[in-house]
Amino acid sequence: MRFRSVFRASKVGIQRHSQLQRLQRSHSQHQSQSARPSFGIAFDIDGVILRGHDPIGGSPQALRRLYNDDGTLKIPYLFLTNGGGVPESARAVELSGLLGVKILAQQILQGHSPFRRLVQRFENDLIVAAGKGEPAQVMSEYGFKKVLSIDEYASYFDDIDPLSSYKAWKVEQAYRIDEDSKKSQPRYDVHSEIVKGVFVVSDPVDWGRDIQVLCDILGFGGLPVKGRGHQQPPLFFASDDLEYQAKFPSERLGMGAFRIALESVFNRTHDDPLEYTSFGKPNPFVFENAEATLKQFLLNIHHNQLTTNEAQAHSFSKIYMIGDNPSVDIKGAREAGHPWFSVLTKTGVFKGGEDNHPDHPADLVVDTVEEAVDYILRREC
Ligand SMILES: [Mg+2]
Q1: Are 87 and 152 contained in the same domain?
Q2: Separation of 367 CA from ligand 1 center, angstroms?
Q3: CA–CA distance, 270 with 273 (Å, rounded to integer)
Q4: What is the Å distance from ligand 1's center to 202 Cα?
Q5: Centroid of ligand 1 to alpha carbon of 80 (angstroms)
């Protein structure tokens, strides 16, 4: 599959170390090996750690137990979420504030994080980024050079959304406005330059407008005007969650629901079916990537005793995936196989009316994330 080859091409290169360093290390290696955690933890966020912006399930206390008294990381862990919309660095700052522990940007794997592996392919091409938050900022930070948010792109085409005058809200124009003409000035020649790729970075806000504009761009070969071409630009979704647990008591429609809506409309209005690639859990690629990232954290914890190669060669006996969504978190961990061990909480999509999920049963079902961490530390430490 396409995303697999992208991942392989960007694996960390081999580093060389002098013989002296190896000799020095080999002394301490034997001693440290027994103390080296042979397990890691991946936390889903929505419905496990947070509901909206509120910590749930004892998550702050649970996370604190993964650090030493001096604040350094004791257990390699990361957040593996299908959510997103802001750069990983911003999400790390936000989570640190909400949860009271120091979380690094490298510990955040969001639905759109794998998009950074597509930079080489689209680096200098005009691309459109859709979704809540700061989708264009996310893509720019990954290294894409010519990115427009769908809000900005749509603003350059008069009447592209025939319902805009009925919408009570106004899109905040963070992009440039010419003070003389009071009209927005495109940074690129959007009326002739073809959009080479479309990225749905986070949950779209204005489904009606976005479905219309994306059908235009994707159906007319990269320009929202009929008769210019038919080759569909590549389309990427950061995830494919049908539903997720937010603050409202029952589940909310996620990016997968938007994908179904877009695909359904597109396929009824165009001859060729919509082509797309979805990232995010339960895709096995995401779990492989998370395992590789967790191994990097061994370097942080044992920076004096491990090389990059040794960290990557390290094999975890277990990696715990703690999630609330059976068809996303649990299905993904089960399909990823060894060393993944799935833990289902009852604080989100799975409400716990039954002992376990019938179609995607977890290895362990607990009430809260705090209970999950208790279990893991009891078993492993
Ligand atoms: Mg969740």
Answers
A1: no
A2: 14
A3: 7
A4: 14
A5: 9
Task: State how many domains the chain has.
Answer: 2
Give residue 276 CA to ligand 1 midpoint distance, Å.
23
Q: How far is the CA of 311 from the centre of ligand 1 (A)?
A: 29
The whole domain housing 324 covers 35-111+281-380
Give the residue among 157, 153, 155, 150 at the shortest CA–CA distance from 129: 150
Distance 46 CA to ligand 1 centre (A): 4
The three-state secondary structure class of 231 is: coil
Q: How far is the CA of 44 from the centre of ligand 1 (A)?
A: 6
Calculate helix-pair angle for 207-219, 255-269, nearest 10 degrees: 50
φ and ψ of 345, to 5 deg: -95, 160
Q: How many CB atoms lie within 10 A of CB 287?
A: 22
Q: Please say whether the dihedral angle defined by the alpha carbons of residues 353, 359, 364 and 370, taken in this order, is positive or negative.
A: negative
Of 67, 25, 77, 41, give the one whose Cα is nearest residue 310: 25
The Cα–Cα gap between 259 and 241 comes to 9
pLDDT on residue 172: 61
The C-alpha torsion from 162 through 168 and 172 to 173, rounded to 10°, is: 40
Q: Give the ranges where the chain is alpha helix by DSSP (H).
A: 2-9, 19-33, 59-64, 88-99, 119-122, 135-142, 150-155, 207-219, 255-269, 284-301, 308-313, 331-336, 369-380
pLDDT tens by residue, 96-111: 999 999 999 999 999 9
Per-residue pLDDT at 354: 76
Contact between 85 and 131 under an 8 Å Cβ cutoff? The reply is: yes
Domain boundary among 278, 310, 343: 278
In a domain, 186, yes or no: yes
Assigned domain for 12 exists: no
- What residues contact 5, with CB distance under 8 A and at least 6 apart? none
pLDDT of 296 above 50: yes
For the whole model, what pTM was predicted? 0.83
